[in-house]
Structure formats: C-alpha cells, structure tokens
Automatic annotation (TrEMBL):
Domain GHMP kinase C-terminal: residue ranges: 275-354
This protein's name: Galactokinase
Family that this chain belongs to: Belongs to the GHMP kinase family. GalK subfamily.
GO MF: ATP binding; galactokinase activity; metal ion binding
Pfam families: GalKase_gal_bdg, GHMP_kinases_C, GHMP_kinases_N
Organism: Pseudonocardia kunmingensis
Domain GHMP kinase N-terminal: 86-177
Residue ranges of every copy of the Galactokinase N-terminal domain listed in the record: 3-50
Amino acid sequence: MSTFAELFGREPDGRWAGPGRVNLIGEHVDYADGLCLPFAIAQRTVVEVGRRDDTRLRLRSRSEEGGYDGDLADVGPGRPEGWAGYVAGVLWALREAGYAVGGIDLLVTDTVPLGSGLSSSAALECGAALAADDLFGLGLGGSTGGRQTLVAACRRAENDVVGAQTGGMDQAASLLGTAGHALLLDTHDDSTRQVPFAPADAGLTLLVIDTKVRHSHADNQYGARRASVEKAAATLGRPSLRDAGLDDLAALDADLLPRARHVVTEIARVRETVALLDDGRLPEIGPLLDASHASLAGDYEVSCLELDLACESARAAGALGARMTGGGFGGSAIALVPVDRADAVADAVRAAFAEGGHREPDIRATEPSAGAERVA
C-alpha cells in the first residue's frame, strides 16, 4: 500500500477528514425546497494533501482504482471521470466562485464505505474542500457562513462535474455537523439549525444496517425521480412542492401523484420529528421513521428487497422505528433501538438476511459526530 511520500516524493502538508452522514428523516426532498434532518457520523474519509505551486492535480486513492493526473484548467463537466471528479470538481467550483486555488497532490487513505448510503462522495468532497481552504488560505472553514460557501462548492462539484443531480443535504451535514445534534436544513434558503439528538441520553441507540447492495447516484433512477418532482411542481404552477398540501395534488396524473405525495408528506414528517426532539420526546419519533420508509418504498419506489427486509426484521425484534437512509436502491437502513435490545435486533436482521440468501449486512451503532476537520 503506497504512502504519500512514495507516490509524490514528499510529505503531505496535512491530513483532513470529512465525515459521512446519516439522514434521520427528510429523504428525497432536498431538491424540492424541503426540510432534511441529517447528522455527521464517526465514519470518515481521510485525505492527505500537499499544496503545489502550479495548477497540476495528482489524485490517488488506496481503496479505488484510477485517479487523475492533469491540470486544473482541464477540469469541467464530465472531466475527470470516476471518484477523482469529486475532488477536482471542488477545486474547479472554488475557482469558478473566484477563489485563488491551485494544484494539489492528494491521497485518499480511508473512506466511508462506498455505496453504503452514508454519502462517501460528500465525505470526500468536504475533506478536500477543507484541505483547499487551509492550504490556499481562503479563510472559509472557521465560520458557519464560510463553511456554507464550501458546501455550495462541493454541491456544484457533484452536480456540474460528476453529473449527479443531488441536493446539498449531504455536504451540509458533513461540513456543519456537531456532536449530539442533527442538522435541520431548510433547502429553500439553505438556513440551518442544530436540533438536539442524543439517543444514548434516552436509553436508545441508532443502528446503521449496511445491506451491502451498492448503488450510484449518477444513474438514471435518481435523475428520473428528481425530474418527476420538478414536473409535478410545474404542473401545479409552483416553484417547488415545498408549500403544497395533499389536497393540491389532485391535479396531478397517476405517474406524478405518488412522487409528489412522498415529498409533501415527508416534509411534514420532518416538522413533526423536529418538534418531538425539541420537546425531549426522542423515543416517540419511531412511527415517523416507519412512515417515512413506507412512503419511500411505496410512493417513491427507491427501496429494495434488502432495505425492506432490514427494516421489517428490525421492527419485529424490538426497534422503535426503522427506515432506509440515503438515495436508495441499496445502501443502508437505520433502526432506532433500546440499548438493551440492540444485540437482539442486530442478530435478528442478520438471521433474516441469511434465511433470504443475502450477503451478511454490516451493522453498527452510530451517533452524531463533529463535521469535517483537520486531523494532522
């Protein structure tokens, strides 16, 4: 396994870590001016980076093949391909926004599990963004407002360079997360608020169940869902579905109605969840998690057999609520579980997967953690 020095002939200027994220609730609404409630997790993508005096980019990873060796001036929509686009795209976006960034040497040493629904892409983007901020003296990483500028650059990298039409939820969670809290993100105006979320204080734990079914956000399925939501809003004569009510959806045809219904009801579920958390009633959010999954599986059709099985078996073994998290079509589910039932729930999920002939899922407890930071 090559070191930074072996690859680039020098030591890095530092190491930066971008965390993955779990979205507690508020799925597939971040591109509809909706409300999301993600939090940063302990699993992190770590990059070692050295500043260059030219505009050359040399990007390598210990876990992914490929990379990039080229000039920053050559970066743009669709270039470079693969994982390197997430890094090069951030530098391109910062430059497009008027910031004086140049070339870097970068090695990805550790990663959030790829394709797990925990946003390995945003973790990589945010680690790279914070490294660029430090190395080129942009002065953005030390304030919430500055970090929101980095969020925008990361989102543009994913949208414009990689070509994945995601919203900004993942990057906001990775850069703005704090321990003991979930981040209420209003994607209408990008405003944020920290909401108390400390399961251990309520005798609970949040299990993340990685189904090992891998997915890609840059495929046609994700784009098709977003297009449906935008078409539904246009049909209703609204800029977004943010303020639409269920009664308003009667004008939609049978193809658009279920997609729009998910968005409208999911935004309402976020509001209910936040109200319960603000009121110290964390155990009561379980039914809202269940309802969210039912909507994602039924109306939005982004679940899969393994995600459904994870949620069903967790609930049957004592989880207070469970839902898929992330873009869907694979990845991870979450289950809110009393601490004294955590092992039993995990065992029941593994047994259900074994009985169904599926790969053994990776199950671990998680909790809200700090956002992206320099680690060395």
